[in-house]
Amino acid sequence: MNRRNETVSVGKGPLAGIRIVEVAGIGPGPFCGMMLADMGAEVISVERSVNRAAPYDPLQRNRHRIALDLKSTAGLQALLKLADRADAIFEGYRPGVAERLGFGPEVCLERNAGLVYGRMTGWGQSGPLATTAGHDINFIALSGALHAIGRGGDKPVPPLNLVGDFGGGGMLLAFGMVCALLEAQRSGKGQVVDAAMVDGSIALMAMCIGMRGAGLFADEVGSNFLSGAAHYYDTYATADGKFIAVGALEPQFYELLMEKAGLDREAFAAGCMTAAQGHDAAAWADLKCKLAAVFRTRTRDEWCAVFEGTDACVAPVLSISEAPAHPHNIERGAFVDVAGSVQNAPAPRFSRTPAATPVAARSDREDIEALLGRWNCSEAEASAVLAASFASNAV
Fold first, then answer.
1. Which helix (H) or strand (E) holds 342?
2. What digits encode the pLDDT tens for the residues 137-189?
3. What span, in angstroms and rounded, lies between the C-alpha atoms of 268 and 291?
4. Fewest CB atoms within 10 A around its CB: which of 40, 41, 118, 208?
5. Residue environment code for 71-88, b if the CB has 16+ CB neighbours within 10 A, otherwise e
6. 379 three-state secondary structure
7. Alpha-carbon distance 47 to 85, whole Å?
8. Distance from chain centroid for Cα 369
């Protein structure tokens, strides 16, 4: 079934008019759904049960939510009816689970030949680990990314779940699905997108892989200049117990750092990245101690005033609660209010087709009925979907 020319734009953003079914999961799946919905795609999230949406959670926003018991005949048939009318569907089950439930790629693509079918896993759809459990930390451990993050002489440090779940997972799947949707517009044919967090986190390591090939990236934990080993690329405590971030890599920026911070030029001049001493780990340790002592002499805000408007590449380390109040973030509108909660704004930004301000998820019967009408479901199909949904959950 090919309905590429039948889409009707009902929202704002570059993906307005794209219809996507999200078989709800955790972590990277909802993040992918957020990204696609933020860009204007109409996303219906199929969940085991639909309780009241958490308006503070960005991962739930901009969706229509319904409950379907996919182990029941009615629930499965309702999901397949939605997939028939969609441009794309994605799920985050282990390999083979969707097939056992009856909505694997072969079934869905036979019914809707133009469908993009996204699959989000940690290990991927193939390989000896494909069917085993894991989480972000396990996937980035296998990719080499985790080993590269940490302090010298200490153990690797998990970078929250940003590298596997989100950067190497949900964002990779969103990118892959948009690529496949673009191709489907030309060919009229759908395909399967196999997005694995191992693959994604390996892709995020591309520059480090290249640096290692050039002999500029060592295998020891915390030994590389981008991992905080170098004095010119690290965080420093200030007099008030807060932190400042320094990223003065290039010599012209390092020069400004020395000037504005009042550093001893005799001690620091040869320590920039391009100087011979700049890649001397022994020099890094000594200069880091000296620079740490300098930054402890003033508060974080005092240092911000010193470096304000300069190219010294110094910035305050803000907490999640502080970030929305920073003047740059305020002027950019980097955070938005969604149902009374502060959330990240849609990104990236578009000049001609900007994204709408996000809204809380919707699960009322009237909203679902309106969506099914826009998706050209027949009255019988819509009734079957609604009956299966509201039988599965008391909304």
1. strand 341-344
2. 999 999 999 999 999 889 999 999 999 999 999 999 999 999 999 999 999 99
3. 9
4. 208
5. eeebbbbbbbbbbbbbbb
6. helix
7. 18
8. 31
Task: Give yes or no: 311 in active site.
Answer: no
Q: Which residue among the candidates 165, 194, 199, 234 is catalytic per the annotation? A: 165
Q: Which phi and psi angles does 275 have, rounded to 5°?
A: -80, 160
Rounded Cα–Cα distance for residues 157 and 247 (Å)? 20
The token duo for 337 is 């209010």
Question: 158 in helix, strand or coil?
Answer: coil
Q: In whole angstroms, how large is the CA radius of gyration of the chain? A: 25
Residues 63, 45: contact at Cβ < 8 Å?
yes
**Can you point out the beta strands (E) in the chain?**
19-23, 42-47, 63-67, 88-91, 116-121, 191-196, 233-237, 243-247, 314-316, 335-338, 341-344
| Amino acid letter for position 266 | E
pLDDT of amino acid 283: 86
* 3-state secondary structure (DSSP) of residue 290: helix
Q: What is the token pair recorded at 186? A: 């030309």
How many angstroms separate the CA atoms of 107 and 91, rounded?
14
> Which residues lie across from 119 on neighbouring strands?
91, 194
The whole-number average pLDDT for the span 300-308 is 97
Angle at which helix 28-38 crosses helix 171-187, to 10 degrees, equals 50
Q: Tell me, what amino acid is at 76?
A: L
Tell me the per-residue pLDDT of 223-266, one tens digit each, with 9 for 90 and over.
999 999 999 999 999 999 999 999 999 999 999 999 999 999 99
* Ranges of H-type helices in 129-170: 136-143
Backbone angles phi, psi at 319, to 5 degrees: -80, 170
Strand 335-338 versus strand 341-344 pairing type: antiparallel
Catalytic residue from among 135, 147, 279, 326 = 135
At residue 121, what is the residue type? T
* Lowest model confidence (mean pLDDT) among 95-99, 150-154, 295-299: 150-154
pLDDT band at 277 (very low <50, low <70, confident <90, very high): low
Q: For residue 165, indicate whether it is catalytic.
A: yes
Contact (Cβ atoms closer than 8 angstroms) between residue 40 and residue 16: yes
Q: How confident is the model at residue 42 (pLDDT cuts 50, 70, 90)?
A: very high
* Amino acid residing at 175: F
Show the tokens assigned to 375: 């998706």
